[in-house]
């Protein structure tokens, strides 16, 4: 190459949480080891010139559910100006959890999911499907926000949904309290590593902010098979990153509870080698676009 130091990369956060979290700081070190000094910018920074970056990597835009139309518009604008990961098509298809029904139609093993707007509709759907208990979650949200057992929600709970105001209803699966939820991380089309996430006693939310615990887990043949089936059904092998969240159904099969292509935590703290793989994938993308700090084309 003409220059061993790459043109700047932007790592995108949010105004609410402008700094990289501990997990992403592991990635920051891996990027710097490869001659990349990324700019850390909120996605809605009005002063940012996104076209000046060789690659924009969307890392933690954690306020996007509250302003999803604006976020999607921003994504389209940046995509037109430079390379962005993940792709605008992936994010358009992933930011609303209604994508789960489409993945089920494509043959992926998915926890049954129905989009609803109020408690009465949710209870009618649960009764129609024979679910003794259900779980509701905002259709556009992250971090466990608004996740609750259907039996515990009030009408006001449904009035607090961010974004579209729609909710997703799923059957409550008991394994969340006995076995936990599995996360399989995919980097640049390859399955990388897995974790098991468990909720605190008496809860169903596995997120650390609600007292959940996360531990490394062996990427077993079963996890590999199911996660790969999801990646194939979603046709996201060319994306920079994905996280496949799986839970065991009452019949013993693993099923998809969420596929995150928009702002997933990739658990680099638990597997630092994965941050190296991610950083290598960033280098490959910059190289493919032929942009180095001097603005010239690669000559190798």
Keywords:
disordered N terminus; alpha+beta; globular; 300 residues; 30% helix; four-stranded parallel sheet; disordered C terminus; 13 strands; five-stranded antiparallel sheet
Describe the structure concisely.
Helix content is 30%, strand content 22%. By secondary structure, the chain is α+β, with helices and mostly antiparallel strands. The strands form three sheets. A five-stranded antiparallel beta sheet has the order 11-10-9-12-13.
Average pLDDT works out at 90
Structural class: alpha+beta
Number of strands: 13
* Poorly predicted runs of 5 or more residues: 1-5, 292-300
Overview of the structural elements:
The protein has 300 residues and is of the alpha+beta class. Helix content is 30%, strand content 22%. It contains nine helices and 13 strands. The chain has helices spanning 22-32, 68-81, 88-94, 99-105, 119-129, 155-158, 175-178, 221-234, 272-289; strands at 9-13, 39-42, 55-58, 83-85, 114-116, 134-138, 148-149, 167-171, 181-187, 190-198, 213-217, 241-248, 254-260. The strands form three sheets. A five-stranded antiparallel beta sheet has the order 11-10-9-12-13. A four-stranded parallel beta sheet has the order 2-1-3-4, with helices on both faces. The longest helix is centred in the C-terminal third of the chain and has 18 residues, at 272-289. The radius of gyration is 20 Å and the shape is globular. The termini are close together. Mean pLDDT is 90; it is low at 1-5 and 292-300.
